[in-house]
């Protein structure tokens, strides 16, 4: 090629680039809540009212120090005419645009403004006042602009709408209602001839169908569509001729063997739409999409690409504590990752359309989305609703992640709008009604909210698909993962069970700029999440993760004949387990007096992944080494095809009887023991320690841990948490080198205290029960304000309930004392207080010294101090006596909605029933008070046989 030909080629290429155009975007505001721009602002009432100030856009003006705060339910306690909420903000912003934009179609776009929004450009009204807070709207302002000169944008935003139905649908709701331009504002410029929008329907068989909306077609005579895969390979194309004045063209063709989009396989393609004039491209635009087919087979289920799927979903508010509903792409990404970390596959956008970036991330990472028209419990009018349906669907229709449209929530359904969605959605997705009353089935799907377990059973026996769009309300620590296992098994095993959506994702706590930036959850109204406001993980988060694991392993403990083979069920819909990966670890746990928590890894190994089809069952063979029983614990980690951890299961190899011997093996110092008595006490004594036992009740009255007489305040136990403790007899006696006190009660309960020469105080107790009980076991007293931290070998690190044992793994955990009340400030997790599962030993670090407690028998729960699961007029459920308990049974936890929380928890399913206890229960506890002389901490000590705790 000559120099001249090269120059000619470059000139032609440059000419082509200059001639081809696409939409140009120029932001007037910032791009998100972190990247804002300063505008002028004035508000008519509340803080900083009556004067012009500066405000960051996008934002809510309350979070910028203006106006007043309103929770949606304020109308109940304030004014029915809404005057309390009537705030209006005025915005001003100056901007310039280039002369090169002359002759183009220029729109100003608002992605979201709360609520009524009037826009002026250079003093001219841009168009009708927009009503509706969560919807993208735009005005053509081409004829109102000064090119190359300064332009003035004025925006008037009224917090409450002049339309009563908009207030009913959006503002009088159970969530924070804020004001202002909370999503970006920008200009978009297109050449006169352009593609204004496209609508795509791409089916699983490879059929691609698109409606292409054209603007002012004059010279263009060809329309071309090209499909590219993720590697930018051209996989399909088609073109048609167009004529002057065309406004809509349709193209349909097929792509061979497309990779299909599902939440498990989020395969995306790109469609490039080009307007051409005599083979020259004059305009182009692009859209990402996925090939997938959605079917509702009435009386059967929801099918994606011909496969029945069940929703493991959650309700999500768009939320950031500092900025409210003005968020960022990073927040959207974080939320999708957290939802997927819980092994969920679906999200409901409650109760309004989300940010565009959230939907893009759901497309690319894989979540089924229920996109919802607002309407909390009241509906839009038909006139307003039609406009808002169009704005929502036009913006969102090409997202493959959206598989449902929801026409409002809990009675907020305007039936006249049901047919509006299909006008703008070429793929004609199903429309549902998210409701809270029976009998509102729509399109063959019943979405009734907050049914209990047994009414759910009845619904699943009916004629309709059942997919509750809200269930197991997670206020405080209730709901969420609590009882979820029972509900999930119902849906998984039922033909018409389609899964559902938990309420809700986060505690909607707002940083109050009028209260020194404290976080406010509006009392009991907004702490409904399985995560805190800053995405702090609560116990339900981890329970959900195990319950919804697509790899289901039910093995609770290792059987005596365990040979490394574990039964497994594949609960994926589209993924074979051979595409997942498995790794095991053999570990030894840290000892009670070690300065560390956790475990030491002994050996690791990987095994061949089993070939188990979706919904199939089979086995995993760990191929453990022959000496695996010499280790103390076994861990199994599963990762998915993308390298993300699905779950880690843990099992204890050594029994508690073997583990308890470790404590005595660490104690190298022994002293002879004796017993003295006075009128009221038996006193068990060694050289350094003294334990006083009351003669009238057999309870521990005091503890002295050294020769100086230093006391500890642990006492008043063991009190049986059920029944009375009327003394029948008490006596002391010697047994070898040990001193014992035997206590019997009139109801047949019995305790024996034994002091060993190595300083261990042993407690053996037994009790009999026959009936239904919230808990069982024994309690002691310990001043809570003396506690510094806790360390334990057992399940953790979060507390549990009878119906939420899932999600906690076996390890040595350590937790500094906190005062966290789930769902309330401070959001410090895991909570220090609560019931803890499968504890082998516990060590409390107190201001008076250490208290170490071990057990010989299996499956002991430990209760630490006073806490409640749900806070209403009073705390629930009730607690055992004392404040430190060693228990054989603990209570279930209900939810705050639909049930009388004092007596209806059992309606949530079998796991939520009270404990049915019948028989005699025995347990041995080993107490060591203070810090022993360990010598070389790393040395393995062998004690004389008489000093080892006997079986």
TrEMBL record:
<dbReference type="InterPro" id="IPR017853">
    <property type="entry name" value="GH"/>
</dbReference>
<dbReference type="InterPro" id="IPR013783">
    <property type="entry name" value="Ig-like_fold"/>
</dbReference>
<dbReference type="InterPro" id="IPR006102">
    <property type="entry name" value="Ig-like_GH2"/>
</dbReference>
<dbReference type="InterPro" id="IPR006104">
    <property type="entry name" value="Glyco_hydro_2_N"/>
</dbReference>
<dbReference type="InterPro" id="IPR050347">
    <property type="entry name" value="Bact_Beta-galactosidase"/>
</dbReference>
<dbReference type="InterPro" id="IPR006101">
    <property type="entry name" value="Glyco_hydro_2"/>
</dbReference>
<keyword id="KW-0326">Glycosidase</keyword>
<dbReference type="GO" id="GO:0004565">
    <property type="term" value="F:beta-galactosidase activity"/>
</dbReference>
<dbReference type="Pfam" id="PF02837">
    <property type="entry name" value="Glyco_hydro_2_N"/>
</dbReference>
<keyword id="KW-0106">Calcium</keyword>
<dbReference type="Pfam" id="PF02836">
    <property type="entry name" value="Glyco_hydro_2_C"/>
</dbReference>
<feature type="domain" description="Glycoside hydrolase family 2 catalytic">
    <location>
        <begin position="295"/>
        <end position="515"/>
    </location>
</feature>
<dbReference type="GO" id="GO:0005990">
    <property type="term" value="P:lactose catabolic process"/>
</dbReference>
<feature type="domain" description="Glycoside hydrolase family 2 immunoglobulin-like beta-sandwich">
    <location>
        <begin position="222"/>
        <end position="292"/>
    </location>
</feature>
<dbReference type="InterPro" id="IPR036156">
    <property type="entry name" value="Beta-gal/glucu_dom_sf"/>
</dbReference>
<dbReference type="InterPro" id="IPR006103">
    <property type="entry name" value="Glyco_hydro_2_cat"/>
</dbReference>
<dbReference type="GO" id="GO:0030246">
    <property type="term" value="F:carbohydrate binding"/>
</dbReference>
<dbReference type="GO" id="GO:0009341">
    <property type="term" value="C:beta-galactosidase complex"/>
</dbReference>
<dbReference type="Pfam" id="PF00703">
    <property type="entry name" value="Glyco_hydro_2"/>
</dbReference>
<dbReference type="InterPro" id="IPR014718">
    <property type="entry name" value="GH-type_carb-bd"/>
</dbReference>
<dbReference type="InterPro" id="IPR011013">
    <property type="entry name" value="Gal_mutarotase_sf_dom"/>
</dbReference>
<comment type="similarity">
    <text>Belongs to the glycosyl hydrolase 2 family.</text>
</comment>
<comment type="subunit">
    <text>Monomer.</text>
</comment>
<keyword id="KW-0378">Hydrolase</keyword>
<dbReference type="InterPro" id="IPR008979">
    <property type="entry name" value="Galactose-bd-like_sf"/>
</dbReference>
<dbReference type="InterPro" id="IPR023230">
    <property type="entry name" value="Glyco_hydro_2_CS"/>
</dbReference>
<protein>
    <recommendedName>
        <fullName>Beta-galactosidase</fullName>
        <ecNumber>3.2.1.23</ecNumber>
    </recommendedName>
</protein>
<feature type="domain" description="Glycosyl hydrolases family 2 sugar binding">
    <location>
        <begin position="52"/>
        <end position="191"/>
    </location>
</feature>
């Amino acid at each position: 090629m000559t120099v001249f030909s090269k120059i000619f080629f470059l000139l032609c290429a440059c000419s082509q680039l200059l001639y081809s155009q696409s939409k140009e975007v120029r932001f007037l505001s910032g791009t998100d809540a972190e990247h804002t721009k300063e505008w002028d602002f004035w508000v008519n009432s509340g803080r900083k009212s009556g004067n012009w100030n500066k405000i960051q856009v996008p934002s809510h003006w309350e979070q910028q120090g203006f106006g007043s705060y309103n929770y949606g339910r304020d109308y109940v306690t304030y004014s029915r005419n809404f005057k309390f909420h009537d705030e209006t903000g005025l915005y001003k912003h100056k901007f310039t645009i280039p002369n090169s934009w002359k002759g183009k179609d220029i729109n100003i776009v608002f992605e979201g403004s709360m609520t009524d929004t009037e826009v002026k450009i250079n003093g001219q009204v841009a168009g009708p006042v927009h009503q509706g807070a969560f919807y993208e709207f735009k005005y053509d302002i081409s004829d109102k602009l000064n090119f190359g000169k300064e332009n003035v944008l004025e925006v008037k935003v009224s917090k409450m709408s002049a339309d009563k139905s908009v207030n009913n649908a959006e503002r009088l709701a159970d969530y924070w209602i804020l004001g202002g331009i909370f999503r970006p504002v920008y200009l978009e410029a297109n050449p006169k001839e352009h593609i204004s929008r496209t609508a795509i329907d791409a089916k699983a068989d490879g059929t691609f169908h698109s409606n292409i909306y054209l603007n002012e077609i004059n010279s263009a005579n060809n329309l071309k569509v090209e499909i590219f895969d993720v590697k930018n390979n051209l996989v399909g194309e088609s073109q048609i001729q167009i004529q002057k004045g065309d406004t809509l063209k349709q193209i349909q063709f097929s792509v061979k063997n497309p990779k299909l989009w599902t939440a498990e396989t989020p395969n995306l393609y790109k469609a490039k739409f080009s307007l051409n004039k005599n083979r020259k491209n004059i305009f182009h635009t692009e859209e990402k999409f996925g090939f997938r087919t959605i079917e509702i087979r009435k009386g059967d289920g929801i099918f994606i690409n011909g496969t029945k799927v069940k929703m493991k979903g959650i309700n999500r508010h768009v939320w950031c504590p500092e900025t409210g509903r003005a968020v960022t792409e990073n927040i959207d990404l974080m939320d999708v990752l957290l939802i997927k970390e819980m092994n969920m596959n679906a999200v409901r956008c409650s109760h309004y359309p989300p940010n565009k970036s959230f939907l893009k991330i759901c497309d690319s990472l894989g979540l089924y989305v229920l996109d919802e028209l607002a309407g909390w419990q009241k509906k839009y009018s038909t006139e307003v609703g039609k406009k808002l349906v169009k704005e929502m669907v036009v913006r969102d229709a090409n997202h493959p992640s959206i598989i449902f449209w929801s026409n409002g929530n809990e009675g907020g359904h305007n039936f006249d709008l049901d047919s509006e969605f299909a006008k703008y959605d070429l793929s004609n997705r199903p429309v549902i009604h998210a409701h809270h009353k029976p009998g509102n089935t729509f399109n063959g799907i019943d979405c009734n909210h907050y049914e209990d377990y047994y009414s759910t059973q009845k619904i699943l026996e009916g004629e309709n698909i059942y997919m509750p769009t809200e269930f197991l309300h997670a206020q405080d620590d209730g709901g969420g993962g609590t009882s979820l296992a029972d509900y999930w098994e119902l849906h998984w095993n039922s033909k018409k069970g389609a899964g559902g959506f938990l309420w809700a994702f986060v505690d909607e706590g707002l940083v109050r700029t009028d209260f020194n930036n404290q976080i406010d959850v509006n009392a009991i109204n907004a702490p409904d999440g399985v995560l805190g406001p800053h995405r702090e993980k609560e116990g339900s988060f981890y329970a959900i993760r195990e319950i919804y694991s697509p790899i289901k392993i039910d093995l609770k403990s290792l059987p005596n004949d365990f040979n490394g083979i574990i039964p497994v069920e594949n609960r994926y819909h589209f993924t074979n387990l051979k595409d997942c990966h498995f790794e095991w670890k053999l570990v030894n746990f840290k000892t009670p007096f070690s300065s560390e928590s956790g475990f030491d890894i002994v050996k690791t190994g990987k095994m061949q992944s089993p070939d188990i089809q979706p919904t199939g069952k089979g086995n995993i063979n760990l191929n453990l080494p022959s000496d695996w029983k010499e280790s103390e614990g076994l861990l199994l980690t599963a990762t998915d095809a993308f390298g993300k951890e699905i779950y880690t299961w843990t099992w204890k190899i050594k029994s508690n009887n073997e583990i308890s011997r470790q404590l005595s093996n660490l104690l190298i110092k022994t002293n002879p023991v004796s017993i003295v008595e006075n009128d009221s006490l038996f006193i068990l004594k060694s050289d350094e320690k003294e334990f006083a036992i009351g003669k009238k009740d057999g309870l521990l009255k005091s503890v002295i841990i050294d020769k100086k007489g230093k006391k500890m305040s642990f006492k008043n136990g063991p009190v049986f948490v059920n029944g009375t403790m009327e003394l029948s007899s008490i006596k002391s006696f010697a047994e070898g080198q040990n001193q014992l006190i035997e206590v019997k009660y009139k109801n047949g309960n019995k305790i024996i205290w034994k002091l060993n020469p190595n300083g261990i105080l042993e407690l053996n107790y037994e009790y009999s029960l026959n009936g239904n009980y919230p808990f069982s076991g024994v309690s002691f007293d310990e001043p809570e304000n003396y506690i510094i931290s806790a360390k334990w070998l057992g399940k953790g690190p979060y507390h549990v309930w009878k119906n939420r044992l899932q999600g906690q793994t076996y390890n040595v955990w350590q937790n500094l004392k906190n005062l966290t009340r789930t769902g309330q400030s401070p959001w410090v997790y895991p909570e220090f207080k609560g019931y803890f599962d499968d504890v082998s030993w516990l060590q409390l670090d107190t201001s008076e010294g250490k208290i170490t407690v071990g057990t010989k028998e299996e499956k002991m729960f430990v209760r630490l101090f006073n806490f409640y699961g749900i806070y209403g007029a009073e705390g629930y459920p009730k607690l055992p006596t004392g404040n430190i308990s060693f228990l054989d049974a603990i209570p279930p936890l209900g939810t705050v909605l639909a049930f009388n929380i004092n007596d209806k928890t059992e309606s949530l399913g079998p796991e939520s029933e009270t404990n049915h206890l019948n028989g005699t229960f025995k347990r041995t506890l080993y107490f060591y008070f203070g810090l022993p002389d360990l010598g070389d901490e790393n040395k393995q000590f062998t004690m004389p046989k008489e000093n080892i705790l006997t079986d």
